[in-house]
Structure prediction request, 462 residues.
Amino acid sequence: MTHGNAPIEQTASRHGTWRSRGTFILAATGSAVGLGNIWRFPYVTGEYGGSAFIVVYLVSVLLLGLPVMMAEVALGREGRHSPLITMQKLIERTRSHRIWLLIGWSSLLSGFLIASYYEVIAGWTLRYALDYSGQAIGLLPGTTDVQQVWSAFLSSPGQLILFQTLFVVITMAVIARGLKRGLEKATTLMMPVLFLMLLALLVYSLLEGDPAASLSYMFKPDWSALGVNGVLAAMGQAFFTLSLGMGAIMVYGAYLPEGVKVPSTVGVIALLDTLVAIIAGIALFSIIFAHPELQPESGPGLLFITLSSAFEVMPGGVLIGMLFFFLVGVAALTSLLSIVEPTVAWVVEKYNASRLRVSITVGVVVWLLGLGTVFSFNLGEDVLIFFGQTFFGFLDYLTNNILLPAGGLLIALFAGWIMPREVIARQLSLEGRAFLTWQILARWIAPAGILAVLVYTWFSAG
Prediction:
């Protein structure tokens, strides 16, 4: 490895590189598009003033999300390894303090912990997709009490573990096949399918739902409803929706071919991620508002109770329910692949082990840790062992409110202040005023915004 301002000699990851810019865009968009786009963004948009929230969100994406995402991709492509080993190499090269290894360790830990509970929640979407498939072909009867079905499912550890296991097996089977035969093939197949299913759901919702009420809920500006909480929620959503701070974007950046311009590529990813969230919101609330007895709510209840109630009584609702939960499952799978990949890549690199063995091992360990989340909804729901929270509640708080924003903050600071200007400018294909603008955002604006979100979440939780 060279020192000074020369680039690291390795020009390609040992795992390979994406076939094209388009493949990387699909993969990174798949990482960004997840459960948060479908069950959080639409709800908080309506809660905090509709288009007033969206305006602040879009500004936050530009000033907060994009600079950090560009920094994470640039560091990944410069290092060409998993996040932890990339940071080790960059620290050695810049002769900076080893405290910056916190970026690598935080990415590794947060991705591992998130995967352990994300797989459980993703399993719920698989169960519902299969349930609706069974109803569609006449193997299963419909239900008249959606709430009872949901409660019975959560209270059954056996069922939760079954679908958790199925999702882990699917995820690790793709990961084990490597970049070209696994991640790339899965991404190029699943993302177009996801977009087509989303458009089909939108068309159905416009025909059978109440699009006028949905558009009013999401886009009618109410600046009085925004407030400080709405501004900070928009900033947090802009950061979290792009999968920043967990190593996913850094490791995907390590597989990015030379010559691909990072700013425009990252801009396309952010645009697609936002469009998916907005289209999903229009579709979901069009369906919900067609039934005055139903009220929008946040979290899993929006999908598994409110929407399921609507599907049970709408024309063709069984088929649309099947389509919708397969859509959510695909979104969850593409996100989970990117969450697990940094851990698998690190173990493969550190121990020079086969990807198949590592994938099986990581899958088993993640599955075992996921049992804590499973039991948080039934046998252990009254066991508040971490600061008055269940096992799942603690992991969710630790990762989303501490590890991810802290990791993103450190990434912005390291790229903006520690990395040689020439290296970052080369990786970002920026010069002059364009580079200066990114530098100001990465050094000052993004860190200030992330700190504001961190302080807000800490105090609001307290």
Summary: The CA atoms of residues 60 and 245 lie 16 Å apart. Residues 21-461 form a domain with the Amino acid/polyamine transporter I fold (CATH 1.20.1740).
